[in-house]
Amino acid sequence: MTPENASRELLEMARLAPVIPVIVVDELDHAVPLAEALVAGGLPVLEVTLRTPMALPAIRKMSHVPNAIVGAGTVLRAEQVSEVQHAGGLFAVSPGSTEALMTRCEEADMPLLPGAATATEAMRLLERGYSMQKFFPAEASGGAAALGSFASPLPQVTFCPTGGVGLGNAPDYLRLKNVVCVGGSWVAPKKLVETGDWDGISALAAEAVQTLSAVT
Ligand code: 3PG
Fold first, then answer.
1. pLDDT greater than 80 at residue 216
2. Which of 60, 148, 183, 185 is deepest in the core (most CB within 10 A)?
3. Rounded to an integer, what is the distance from CA 128 to the centroid of its chain?
4. Which residue CA neighbors atom 7 of ligand 1 most closely?
5. Domain that holds residue 23
6. 182-215: pLDDT as tens digits
7. Residues 36, 61, 106, 134: which is the catalytic one?
8. How many CB atoms lie within 10 A of CB 195?
9. 79 pLDDT above the threshold of 90
10. How far is CA 79 from the centre of its chain?
């Protein structure tokens, strides 16, 4: 898969909802009800971070949830790409990018959303063909003011800002013309996951859709 096609696919997914939930799964039993709750609330594109031993089995289970589009986040190493693929993950998100990771994703037909925090990083990715990028860590890198400043010199790049984004500041990002959606963990908070409050998570997702769809 070319980087251009990867970015095209990611852009299509990113247009499905204003938020991509960033998910940490500690217990496999949480995977399906969590995915169902987020999809029911209107957030179908789910990023499961490869930070726990349960992440890959969770991706496998969540990928069978109707209407869920499940990918992996925190993909750092090339060898993780085939693991994600075997688990049924449909895309990979990385906080940055490495030559090895990009090459492996391109060889394996795995759509990659690579991270960039500076103009130089965004330019390097664009030079390779990645026009859809994750702006990470968004708030710590200057927030919406910094990202908005990329729009004039780098109009070809569309971003999904992630890192420190919540319902309060998401509108600031979504109003930017170079932002298509945001990523964030606030719609799947650890406490609600641990207590199995799936209705609460659905409500957070629905609140995000309702509040943010008006902005995009
Ligand atoms: C992360 O690295 O966990 C993601 O960027 C999500 O960040 P958040 O928890 O600030 O939403």
1. no
2. 183
3. 20
4. 163
5. 3-201
6. 999 999 999 999 999 999 999 999 999 999 998 8
7. 134
8. 10
9. yes
10. 20
Burial string for 125-146 (b: 16+ CB within 10 Å, else e) reads bbebebbbbbbbbbbebbbbeb
CATH number, residue 196: 3.20.20.70
Structural domain includes residue 191 = yes
Q: How confident is the model at residue 163 (pLDDT cuts 50, 70, 90)?
A: very high
Quick check: 40 and 202 in contact, CB under 8 A?
Answer: yes
Ligand 1: residue whose CA is nearest its atom 9? 185
Q: Is residue 215 part of a domain?
A: no
Dist. CA 35–CA 158, nearest whole Å: 26
What whole-number distance in Å separates Cα of residue 58 and Cα of residue 107? 24
Rounded to the nearest angstrom, the distance between the alpha carbon of 164 and the centre of ligand 1 is 6
| Domain count for the chain | 1
Has residue 206 been placed in a domain?
A: no
Q: Six-digit token pair at 75?
A: 């993909």
Averaged over 152-177, what is the pLDDT?
98
Protein residue closest via CA to atom 11 of ligand 1: 184
Ligand 1 centroid to residue 35 C-alpha, Å = 18
- Match 């309060």 to its residue by tokens: 168
Overall residue count recorded for the chain in this entry: 216
The stretches of 21-159 forming alpha helices (DSSP H) are 31-40, 55-62, 79-87, 99-108, 119-128, 143-150
The dihedral built from the CA positions of residue 202, 208, 214 and 216, taken in this order, carries a sign that is: negative
**In a domain? residue 72:** yes
What is the spatial distance between Cα 36 and Cα 166, in angstroms, rounded to a whole number?
A: 21
CA of 184 to the centre of ligand 1 (A): 5
